[in-house]
Amino acid sequence: MSRSPENETTTHNAERNQVNLLLNKMMLEGRSFSGHERNCCYLNCGAFPAAQERFANISAASGIDFPDDGRALVTMDWDQDGDLDIWTANRNAPRLRFLQNELQNPHQSLSLQLEGNGTTVNRDAIGTRVEVLVEGNVEGNVEGNKDVTGQTAKQNKRQNKRIQTVRAGEGFLSQNSKRLHFGLGQNERIDQVTVTWPDGQKEQFDTLEPGGHYRLVQGSAKAVEVGTRQTNLKIFGGNQTLPPKQAEATLRPLTPIAFPPLTYQSLSGETKQLAVGQNKPLLVNLWASWCQPCLKELVAFSDQAEALQKAGLEVIALNVDGLGDDTTSPEEAAKFVKRLRLPFTVGRADAKLLDQLQQLHDMQTTLRPPLPLPTSFLIDEKGRLIAIHKGPVEVETALKELRTAAGNSDYQGNLLRAAGASGTILEYPDLRKAFENNDVEQRFQYANWLQSNQFESEAIKQYQAILRMWPDSAKAEVDLGSALMQTGDLDGAEKAFEKALALEPDSSRAHLRLGSLYLKRGQRELALTHLERAQTLSPEDISIVNNLGTLYDQLGKYPEAIKQFNRAIELMPGEPGSYNNLAWLQATCADANYRDAPKAINMARKACQLTGWNDFSTLDTLATAYAANQDWTEAIKWQAKAIEYAPQRQRANLKRRLDAYQKQKTTSGNL
After folding, report:
1. Residue 214 lies in a domain
2. What pLDDT, in 10s, does the model give residues 625-661?
3. Residue 168: which domain range?
4. Which of 115, 287, 351, 379 could connect to 282 by a Cys-Cys bridge, CB 3.0–4.6 Å?
5. pLDDT tens per residue, range 607-629
6. DSSP codes, 355-400
7. 257 and 395 together in one domain
8. What sign has the CA pseudo-torsion 444, 450, 452, 455?
9. Rounded to whole angstroms, how far apart are CA atoms 548 and 531?
10. Domains contained in the chain, number
11. Please, which residues bridge with residue 157 across strands?
């Protein structure tokens, strides 16, 4: 079952943050929140010593433990037989379930329907409190047995209360019947019913009998017996027929994006780049040798090679055998290709490419299920992604998509193309505004993705295109400057940040980025001016806090630097960069008073844990911390790991450190 925080002060530590991320991923992938979780039912065991004030789990015994992922529950005496029945609404099928209480119970009950006066109290009597005073055996005590006081059931005939309140809403998406149902157990007589109305008036109702159904009207002081509900409504059980799962679906981006220069492996192991944007459309197809729809689709492509060639549509079929949990061998796929002599390019996708294609898909939709097989990415002659076909795609369908995209490049055309519809879009200002906002968001999201995946030149082109459409966007200038800075063009980046500040003088992001640029150049006073201004504008932005900490470190203000890094950890305990920065200072500080190798190791390991032990910068810091502790074996081990995960352009510098550690180990021995 799901688990809530133990109390209201429970903090979201790194482990809980990771769990929340996994839960969010499950939801985005369209999976169940809890995965066919069974209904639970607990019985209050009463105040007897043997019960130890606990509840008994009677989920299975009650017959209620269906694996429905139940969401809402209401109780009512549906069949008017004196006991409560249950209706549940569920996430899974059946969406609605009726659970009829068929227990043979000799005990009595009481049903009350209340009605307010309509002036000082609402007609539904919401908020009314009812006390039913009964006389009989103490609940749960069998005649002849002794209770906790040593009295027998015959001796222990005393009054006890049943209390309920009329409420509007009983739980998540649910409302019980407004008729109050009182179980009377073994009690033989109702002595008195006291009603406290929401306006403060109290009334007593007498002469009510067990098993009765009564209406209590405010101000009448008289209970009117209403009998059972007369109805011919019958409920028949049945099997719910689920709609068949669709074998295919098409996702058409509302904003066609320029497909990135992704790479794949040829069957001989060479790295190739997907040739997009060369005045020739491209269909990138994912398939596996064990996937029968995939193999049928490849044969269909082969049979229609002439139509593909005539339309100029190139097919690149990328095999995914052996990736992830798949235990099939890529050699089987190669045998299949050789046997069929496919007349188009066939290669292999690696895990990185598959992940990138998944991310491109996820940018286009809210629900992000894993890509099925087969899946095809259709790219037009301009290099734009215009459709993602999940499941087999007909050649004619792909060609029609290309023709539609070529003739629809304006606002209306894009809407019709994305919807897969024909006709006319009615002009509606709010719809156009929503389209424009979505277009901007999609372009920014894609440009940010390109930048984070080291496609800096493509990201710069995207930011420049955004600025041509929206020249007054300070955000676009900041992002453009960040991409330029990533490529080493500090002058270009400086101009972009200055333009952003001219457009938006109080942009904390622009001050942060410009401060970071000056920090990189070694212009520390200018860096300090902008970073302190950024922190004034956004005091809880951990990027600003971390950058200020780094600057204080460079200025030799180590106490201030440590304070900033600790502040960043306090603001966001799950952010690895803060631990990494503090670990680096503790491992490399020029002032021995602030160096602390054991603490640096702990901080660096925390950073590595948060990044999944596959981030080169945190692994490099961990190796440096072990080196500061003169543990050369561990330093060499983690530095080699850092090199394994590092981009090519970073490896030379990391390799120099590894050589230094190996030399120290040779000189000093294995500590």
Report:
1. yes
2. 999 999 999 999 999 999 999 988 899 999 999 999 9
3. 108-225
4. 379
5. 999 999 999 999 999 999 999 99
6. HHHHHHHHTT-S--PPP-SSEEEEE-TTSEEEEEEES---HHHHHH
7. yes
8. negative
9. 6
10. 5
11. 137
